[in-house]
């Protein structure tokens, strides 16, 4: 796309010709006419060399756009038939060209769009995001997500893709921009997130049920057998030799079985969480992890004066569980720090290890596209509680301190549960579902 050129009307001659034209006035008129001729010749040259693909003139009826059809006609037809907004702009965001789809997106006549600033379609926050990218979009371009403001006051989620275009002999660089309507994509994301949350909720309920069954039935039963085997071992005298030894071994094995069943039940749904709250369960989990794996765990928890919302407590506990599972499976760490911080507006959990680290953007699971649901589920849980998860990691082969840090921050008094119900109802009502 080439540059559009605006030609503002020249001011009328200061005095009507004829009457008492002095030599000085005539000279003034000549120089004005010469300037206009130079400008016209320059415009003609720009049109001939293809630097211009539309001319915008200011007339009595406001701005008028004249499109020039040339060798680029085929591309223009293609761009006009696109389902995305396509624009060219100067780096200071003056719109040189926009296709009709963009005009439809912002619900304004094309004439009002051309020659104006792109900034008017963005909020102050999005303008701040776009400004540096317009100045330096990078050779391979840049993408940002914004809310596009339309002429009727409505807003539309959109993705803006930028690319620098050739300068075409002019000294003002132009930027090519594609604006994609993200309304459907956002809706699908929202529904997927809602469904994921539903699955997590169902999984939690099922885990709770199995934990209760294990605790109420299997553990009770194993304990009863344990007591019996103890009695048996006591009743057998030293004379019974190998028989007594067998009974003692049996009792020890049953003791281990009871412990293992209890551990599985606790991992499925720790009763401590429901009864004593988050800090107690973080302490229990850390202690059990340190004893079992030999990795030293340092716990730094604030004392919570009141219970947090049940959903938040469960989210933080599950994230710790998943993070420790990763330390055990992947990190080869010696030390782990678990830190719980609480401020008026949020609660934060950080799990740091001094292990081998990894590249969060290119880890194995992400590359293969299979498995590796741990980090994803942590992030989903955090998002669903209204918060966010950050993963920082440095590999052991890199300079500096190696290790991984998982940090989750959840605002207090803000979850997405209500939104989830609504989205699911909408999903059920969508025809074809
Ligand atoms: N604490 C950690 N230390 C080193 N690597 C890690 C750590 N946590 C995660 N990773 C890397 O990130 C990948 C993805 O983790 P995750 O999503 O939990 O999936 P999974 O544990 O099933 O592989 C792991 O396979 C591992 O390569
Ligand atoms: Mg994992």
What does the model show?
The structure is a single chain. The chain is of the alpha+beta class and 433 residues long. The protein folds into four domains: 3-67, no CATH class; 82-181, PAS domain (Beta-Lactamase); 184-269; 271-433, Histidine kinase-like ATPase, C-terminal domain (Heat Shock Protein 90, 2-Layer Sandwich). It is 48% helix and 21% strand. The protein has 13 helices and 13 strands. The protein has a five-stranded antiparallel beta sheet. A five-stranded mixed beta sheet has the order 9-10-11-13-12. Strands 1-2-3 form a three-stranded mixed beta sheet, covered by helices on one side. Helix 6 packs antiparallel against helix 7 and helix 9 runs parallel beside helix 10. The longest helix is centred in the middle third of the chain and has 53 residues, at 183-235. The chain is elongated. It binds adenosine-5'-diphosphate (ADP) and magnesium ion. Adenosine-5'-diphosphate binds at residues 326-327, 329-331, 353, 355-358, 363-365, 371-376, 404. The site of adenosine-5'-diphosphate (ADP) has 20 residues, from helix 10, helix 11 and helix 12.
Could you write a compact summary of the structure shown?
The strands form three sheets. The chain has a five-stranded antiparallel beta sheet with strand order 5-4-8-7-6. It has a five-stranded mixed beta sheet with strand order 9-10-11-13-12. 48% of the residues lie in helices and 21% in strands. It contains 13 helices and 13 strands.
């Amino acid at each position: 796309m080439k540059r559009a050129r605006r030609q503002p009307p020249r001011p009328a001659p200061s005095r009507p010709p004829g009457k008492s034209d002095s030599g000085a006035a005539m000279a003034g008129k000549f120089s004005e006419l010469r300037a206009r001729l130079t400008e016209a010749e320059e415009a003609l040259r720009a049109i001939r060399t293809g630097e211009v693909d539309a001319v915008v003139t200011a007339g009595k009826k406001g701005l008028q756009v004249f499109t020039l059809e040339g060798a680029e006609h085929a591309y223009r037809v293609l761009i006009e038939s696109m389902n995305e907004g396509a624009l060219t702009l100067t780096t200071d965001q003056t719109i040189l060209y926009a296709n009709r789809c963009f005009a439809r997106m912002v619900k304004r006549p094309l004439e009002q769009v051309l020659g104006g600033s792109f900034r008017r379609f963005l909020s102050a926050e999005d303008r701040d995001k776009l400004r540096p990218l317009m100045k330096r979009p990078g050779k391979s371009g840049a993408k940002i997500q914004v809310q596009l403001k339309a002429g009727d006051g409505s807003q539309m989620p959109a993705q803006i893709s930028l690319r620098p275009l050739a300068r075409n002999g002019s000294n003002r660089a132009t930027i090519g921009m594609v604006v994609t309507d993200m309304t459907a994509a956002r809706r699908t994301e929202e529904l997927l997130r809602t469904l994921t949350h539903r699955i997590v909720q169902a999984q939690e309920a099922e885990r709770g049920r199995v934990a209760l069954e294990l605790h109420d039935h299997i553990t009770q039963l194993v304990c009863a057998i344990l007591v019996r085997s103890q009695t048996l071992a006591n009743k057998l005298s030293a004379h019974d030799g190998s028989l007594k030894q067998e009974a003692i071994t049996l009792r020890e094995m049953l003791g281990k079985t009871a412990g293992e069943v209890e551990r599985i039940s606790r991992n499925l749904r720790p009763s401590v969480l429901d009864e004593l709250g988050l800090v107690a369960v973080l302490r229990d989990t850390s202690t059990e992890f340190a004893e079992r794996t030999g990795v030293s765990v340092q716990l730094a928890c604030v004392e919570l004066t009141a219970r947090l919302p049940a959903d938040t407590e469960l989210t933080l506990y599950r994230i710790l569980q998943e993070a420790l599972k990763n330390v055990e499976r992947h990190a080869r760490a010696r030390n782990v720090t678990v830190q719980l911080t609480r401020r008026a507006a949020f609660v934060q959990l950080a799990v740091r290890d001094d292990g081998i680290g990894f590249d969060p953007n290119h880890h194995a699971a992400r590359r293969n596209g299979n498995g590796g649901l741990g980090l994803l589920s942590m992030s989903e849980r955090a998002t669903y509680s209204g918060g966010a998860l950050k993963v920082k990691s440095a590999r052991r082969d890199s300079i500096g301190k190696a290790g991984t840090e998982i940090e989750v921050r959840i605002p207090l008094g803000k979850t997405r549960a209500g939104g989830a119900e609504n989205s699911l109802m909408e999903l059920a009502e969508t025809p074809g579902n």
